[in-house]
């Protein structure tokens, strides 16, 4: 009799257990859709109209918007890492980001050490001086003059080749501040940046006295060996050129086609 009662009790427990299990909701979370791979992008964030913050504080600009469209087409999520220009390429070397989008000039020395995309914008250097300056009219007049340039910029090399004494700056805005306060004599920078600056701050007592006749090509910068990523970016840029998207972005920021 005890054996029969024990067997019955075990049976009841098993049935109860099974009943509870069948009524327990499935708590296993549904499989989530895979998120897009992230790509980190080094940029200045203070270099209008290429990369800067608008009045609402949002990072925007020609380079930013172009990079965002490229990322959309290659199925990656962009995450911008803002940094000063002089440390930007070093940050790429240190793997702080995967690429640089900041109007980087295509140069032979850079191509030896880095991978670069196909050019997506061309620009010309202009020589900027104070409005009342009558001594500097050409690049040759920079000999012995104080010229404010970012140390790793293409414009610093041009100024040095013409005998200028370089004063290191963190960007175009600082160079203009030093120029208007009389602490430097001139600065070289992009003609499009100058036009945008004068549009935003027409009161600045500055002028251009020289424009480079030949255009400089600019591209995205990558660490050497980024073959697969560069190939995808180049395909996206080619598609953006052929379907008119790149020209539309250019017209938005410059009211002109600066892509060729």
The residue ranges in which pLDDT falls below 50 over 5 or more consecutive positions are 1-34
Number of helices: 9
Q: Roughly how many Å is the radius of gyration?
A: 29 Å
What series of H and E elements makes up the topology? HEEEHEHEHEEEEHEHEHEEHH
Tell me how many strands there are: 13
- Distance between termini? 98 Å
Give the amount of beta strand, in percent: 15-25%
**pLDDT averaged residue by residue:** 87
Largest sheet descriptor: 6 strands, mixed
Structural class: alpha/beta
Q: Helix content range of the residues, please?
A: 25-40%
| Principal-axis shape | globular
Helices and strands, with pairings:
Layout: H1 2-23, E1 37-43, E2 52-53, E3 59-60, H2 62-74, E4 76-82, H3 85-93, E5 99-105, H4 108-113, E6 114-116, E7 121-123, E8 125-130, E9 146-149, H5 154-161, E10 165-168, H6 172-180, E11 187-190, H7 191-200, E12 206-211, E13 216-223, H8 227-242, H9 245-254
Parallel strand pairs: 1-4, 1-5, 9-10
Antiparallel strand pairs: 2-3, 5-13, 6-13, 7-13, 8-11, 8-12
Helix pairs in contact: 2-8
């Amino acid at each position: 009799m005890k054996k029969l009662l024990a067997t019955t009790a075990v049976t009841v427990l098993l049935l109860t257990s099974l009943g509870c299990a069948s009524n327990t909701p499935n708590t296993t979370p549904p499989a989530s859709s895979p998120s897009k791979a992230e790509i980190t992008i080094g940029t200045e964030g203070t270099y209008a109209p290429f990369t800067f913050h608008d009045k609402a504080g949002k990072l925007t600009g020609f380079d930013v918007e172009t990079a965002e469209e490229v990322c959309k087409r290659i199925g990656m999520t962009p995450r911008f890492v803002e940094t000063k220009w002089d440390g930007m390429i070093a940050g790429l070397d240190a793997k702080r980001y995967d690429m640089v989008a900041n109007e980087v000039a295509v140069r032979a020395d850079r191509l030896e050490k880095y991978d670069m995309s196909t050019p997506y914008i061309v620009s010309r250097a202009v020589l900027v001086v104070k409005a009342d300056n009558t001594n500097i009219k050409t690049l040759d007049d920079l000999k012995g003059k104080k010229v404010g340039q970012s140390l790793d910029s293409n414009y610093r090399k041009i100024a040095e080749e013409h005998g200028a004494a370089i004063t290191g700056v963190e960007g175009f805005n600082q160079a203009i501040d030093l120029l208007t306060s009389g602490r430097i004599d001139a600065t070289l920078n992009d003609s499009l940046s100058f036009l945008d600056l004068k549009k935003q701050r027409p009161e600045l007592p500055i002028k251009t006295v020289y424009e480079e006749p030949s255009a400089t090509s600019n591209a995205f910068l990558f660490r050497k060996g980024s073959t697969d990523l560069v190939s995808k970016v180049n395909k996206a840029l080619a598609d953006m050129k052929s379907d008119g998207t790149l020209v539309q972005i250019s017209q938005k920021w410059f009211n002109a086609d600066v892509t060729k």
